């Protein structure tokens, strides 16, 4: 087994990249430029060899990518290579639970601000996006965290949709990949002016997304298992429940629709194609906007912590890395190229981490009240 087969994850797995390449090819567009530090050297070579999006061999691409998809990697050799890769990855991205003290030490004299992605972070990944419920225990943990730290949910879902899952009025919400931001109704605690935070940088795209959504719903009827969601300022095309043989057909179909919408772009998530406006706005920009709204622009006394599992969360991890401030925590069981500093394996570990933060904060408040 070659090294390129080792780094696997839903979000930036080779098969997912192949799907994106196929969509872009049918839309007559070039594949996205992948940031240098985002993708391993071996994978870069693989992309080059297969000429994604530009060459005539999309089918070769899809076949090759299938061969390196996690479900096809079963030999003992693959597992030991995986173990080795995982070992070195975890050294570079240690568990946030094991690094808890370092994280809390770094927050001394600073206000910690929490940013939480939803799917795959607060709720487990399931086949039906309408049933991606978070547990009551997770909700209680998030509620407690928000008592001590300003907390925002940053999601690819539209704001109302993610709110209906989280159901906590005291939080900030950034839906549609950060293109729809709203603060809690009353938040004197952190927002001194107590002005309602509301920001929608892509409002002009509302009718276009609605139009594309309708077309996609109609066209994807021919592909069993395909599912399209309208997230107001963006749309999602799911292929988690589509037979693997039909992924390329779906990709081509999405590409053929996008051809008529040069102002829309495509990104990818976990077995989902995300259709978004070409504006320069993402989860990273939303994080910066929220820090500013909370009064922490150009402030050294703040420690933002962003927890997310998906490729779209990388924009926020990168902002933190570039600012040299706070920590990104990637939720993943598998090694993955990332700008995050730490890792957690799954939502249950996210819950444990949040509960430890609450416990630590309570103890330190108790201690300081005794002094
Ligand atoms: O930014 P997020 O909150 O992580 O949202 C990203 C996408 O999440 C949802 O899809 C993902 O979760 C589904 C439920 O577990 C799963 O079926 C799907 O395969 C995943 O991609 C949501 O449905 C998408 O619209 C979001 O963009």
TrEMBL record:
Biological process annotations from GO: trehalose biosynthetic process
Q: What is its EC number?
A: 3.1.3.12
List the CDD domains hit by this protein, alphabetically. HAD_TPP
Q: Which domain of life is it from?
A: Eukaryota
Question: Known SUPFAM superfamilies for this protein?
Answer: HAD-like
Known catalytic reactions: alpha,alpha-trehalose 6-phosphate + H2O = alpha,alpha-trehalose + phosphate
Write down the InterPro entries for this protein, in alphabetical order. HAD-like_sf (IPR036412), HAD-SF_hydro_IIB (IPR006379), HAD_sf (IPR023214), OTSB-like (IPR044651), Trehalose_PPase (IPR003337)
Keyword entries, A-Z: Hydrolase
Pfam families, A to Z: Trehalose_PPase (PF02358)
Coiled-coil stretches = none
Q: Which cofactor does it need?
A: a divalent metal cation
Q: From the UniProt record, which GO molecular function terms apply?
A: trehalose-phosphatase activity
Q: Annotated pathway, please?
A: Glycan biosynthesis; trehalose biosynthesis
Function of the protein: Removes the phosphate from trehalose 6-phosphate to produce free trehalose.
Protein family (similarity comment):
Belongs to the trehalose phosphatase family.
Q: What is this protein called?
A: Trehalose 6-phosphate phosphatase
């Amino acid at each position: 087994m070659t090294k390129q087969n080792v780094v696997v994850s839903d979000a930036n797995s080779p098969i997912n990249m192949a799907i994106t390449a196929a969509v872009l090819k049918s839309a007559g567009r070039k594949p996205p430029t992948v940031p240098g530090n985002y993708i391993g050297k071996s994978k870069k070579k693989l992309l080059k060899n297969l000429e994604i999006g530009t060459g005539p061999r999309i089918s070769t691409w899809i076949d090759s990518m299938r061969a390196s998809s996690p479900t096809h990697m079963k030999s003992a050799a693959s597992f030991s290579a995986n173990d080795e890769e995982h070992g070195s990855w975890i050294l570079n991205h240690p568990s946030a639970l094991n690094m808890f003290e370092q994280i809390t030490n770094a927050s001394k004299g600073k206000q910690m601000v929490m940013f939480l992605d939803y799917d795959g972070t607060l709720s487990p990944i399931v086949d039906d996006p309408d049933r991606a419920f978070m547990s009551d225990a997770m909700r209680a943990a998030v509620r407690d965290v928000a008592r001590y730290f300003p907390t925002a949910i940053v999601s690819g879902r539209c704001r109302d949709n993610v709110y209906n899952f989280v159901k906590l009025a005291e939080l900030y919400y950034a839906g549609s990949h950060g293109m729809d931001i709203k603060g809690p109704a009353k938040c004197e605690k952190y927002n001194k002016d107590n002005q309602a935070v509301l920001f929608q940088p892509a409002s002009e795209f509302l009718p276009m997304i609605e139009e594309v959504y309708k077309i996609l719903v109609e066209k994807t009827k021919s592909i069993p298992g395909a599912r399209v969601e309208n997230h107001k300022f963006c749309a999602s095309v799911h292929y988690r429940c589509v037979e693997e043989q039909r992924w390329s057909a779906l990709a081509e179909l999405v590409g053929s629709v996008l051809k008529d919408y040069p102002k829309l772009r495509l990104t990818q998530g976990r077995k989902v194609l995300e259709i978004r406006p070409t504006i320069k706005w993402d989860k990273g920009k939303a994080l910066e906007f929220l820090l500013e709204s909370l009064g922490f622009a150009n402030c050294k006394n703040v420690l933002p912590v962003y927890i997310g599992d998906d490729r779209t969360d990388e924009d926020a991890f990168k902002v933190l890395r570039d600012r040299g401030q706070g920590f990104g925590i990637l939720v993943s069981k598998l090694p993955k190229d990332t700008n995050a500093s730490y890792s957690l394996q799954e939502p249950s570990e996210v819950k444990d981490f949040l509960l430890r933060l609450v416990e630590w904060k309570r103890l330190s408040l108790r201690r300081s009240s005794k002094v």
